[in-house]
Structure formats: C-alpha cells, structure tokens
Amino acid sequence: MKHQRKAWLCLSLLAPAAAMAQTTLGGSNVVFYGKVDLAIDMTNFSSTPTRGASSSRNLSNDISYWGLRGSEDLGGDMRAYFKLESGFAADTGSSTGTNSQLFDRESYVGLGGKWGSIQLGSQWTPSLYLQARSDPFSRQGNGSGIIMTQQSPSNPRGFVGSVTQPNAIQYNSPLFGGVTAHVLYGLSERVDAPRTVGSMTDIGLNYLNGPLFIGASYEDQIMATTPAGGALSNRTLALGGSYDFKFIKLFGYAMKNTITGSSHDVKAYYAGFNLPIDQSTIKATYSGRKMDNGGNASFFALGYYYDLSKRTTLYTSFAHLNNGSATNFGLWPGLKTYSPPPIAGGAGLPVAGQSVNNLEFGIRHTF
C-alpha cells in the first residue's frame, strides 16, 4: 500500500508539473526537469585463490531523476526559491528513495538576496559539489570519482556525501572577486545521548575565474560507535579543481579522511581530462586510494561521448579496477553485480583482491 500511495503521489505531481513546465505563474517561475540514463554493462571479474573468474551482463541505471524547481521575485533584490528532486531506477521504474522518501535527492526552500542565500531542507553538501566539479566524468558512469573516494554505505570510510544531508541549514555567500563560501550544518534531531550522532558540519570555499576553478572543503560527520553509546568524528578534507584550455580540460582532486580513534587514515585522488572534438568528448581518468593498514586500490577509465543534440547523448566507456589484497570495491553503475551479498542470495562479488573490468554502452537524455 505504501508503494501504491507513493506512485499515485508521483503521478499527481507529474501531471501539473508537465503542464506548467517553463511557465510563469503569478510571478513565480516553475520548471519541470529531469534525466533518464541507462547503460548496458558488461562486467568481468578476475580469478583469485578463493574465487574463479566470472562475468555478468546488466542493464544499469545511472542517476536518473525528475524534479521541480522555481523562484519568486520578492522585490528589493530578494527572491524565494525551492527545489524538489526525486531519483528513480529507469531499468525497473522503482524509486531510489527509501520507505516514504519521495524526494530523495534534494528537497529545500530558500531565500536569497545581495547578502547571499539561506536554504532549509535535505541538501547535497558543499563537499559533494566540489567533487562533482573536479571529476572528468561528473560523478557518472564507470569512471565516476565516487569509486575510490566514497564507496558508501558498504564502506563508510572516505567521502561521505553519497546521500543528501537531511534537516540541513546552508548559507551560500555572494560572489567576492571570484570566491564563494558555503557553510552547511545538519541537525541530528536526537533526544537520547549522544545527541550529536547524525549531525554534520560541511564547509566549502571555491574560486572561479574564467577557465580556472579551485575549491577546498572540510566535512565532519558525527557517527555512532560500535558498540553503541558513544560518538566519533568522521572528518574529510578535500582539494579539487579544473582548468579549461578550450582544446582540453584538465581535472584533479585529492582527499584525506580521518576517524576519531583510528590510526588508519584514508587518502584518495583522481586526475583526468575532457577532450572535445566537434560533437564528441573523450573522457579519461585515473584514480587511486590508499589506507594506512594496506587497503589500497586503483582504477582507470576511458570514455567516448557523442551528443546527438543538446539533450541526448550516446556514450561508451571502459574501466579497469585493481583491488588490493584488502579491498573489494566495485565499479559504478553496475551495482546489480555487487549486491545483494551471498547471505541474501547474491554473488557477493567482487572478493578481496579481485580485479574488475567493465564495458558500458549508454543513452542519456535530459528534459
């Protein structure tokens, strides 16, 4: 029944949204938008002493979503605005939200002026935006930077911005000489001790001047200890940037993650480029990850993207991931191959030390 109510709610929202897309209603500008992205994924796993070689073929969803956004001019250089965005798996038609979560990607309302803007609701963090702008694959496809820097929730170490931060307050500064600052605080809303568990502080500082972009971020997420009863700090410091030479655009990103009480820090990085050729773009990236206790891994990806129009793109990409003896990371977006674990009837691939090759052919359409 929950899924039926959710489906009817989606339909009731989509119908009026489609009718008022790109229209102005009583001084309010409301836009209906989205993206559908699907790829045929062919994945191969190497053999290890404990597991034989294997392969899989899947139709994989790669960040499909729809949303509503709008703004109202309040006069005196003031504006009110909102954003509601919902992810879905285009291969099955199911929502990517959990339980009754309809807008799992972002849902916030804001007020802006010459002084900047303030947003209230469920939001992406400044750290995530820095990573996306510094990633040659823009956090999409089998070359996505999240592979070595995130790997959440199965591996919470590293960049933790895999989901929106609920109950968040964010301030975005106006532009000062190419510099903007962003400060987000997510409330835990816990009553029982430790009351700080679930809260997050995230700060971003970005500089944009023509072809040059440079950014830094600091993220501190308070997590529960195991066994429960205590709190620990999961801190990530990151630097990223890009430079557009017109004939080629270069990207780079590096992060360091530390958890309170742990002597094993995580360091990860990636670097790559976009090479535009008429309606095509060649994308390449190399990424590495190192943990003080030996949890090392690396991967590279090479992709070709062809724009049929401003809204429709065909693409193909190959990626190779080399897992160290203590890591078992997988390649996005072929998550069907990696879950559920064996206890739930899945293959549980890859196992530690197993390398992964992935070739994908996809279609991306925005509206």
TrEMBL record:
Keyword annotations of the record: Cell outer membrane, Ion transport, Membrane, Porin, Signal, Transmembrane, Transmembrane beta strand, Transport
Annotated membrane topology: Multi-pass membrane protein
Superkingdom, natural source: Bacteria
Keyword Transmembrane helix in annotation: no
Binding partners and assembly: Homotrimer.
SUPFAM superfamilies: Porins
Organism of origin: Herbaspirillum rhizosphaerae
Name used for this protein in its record: Porin
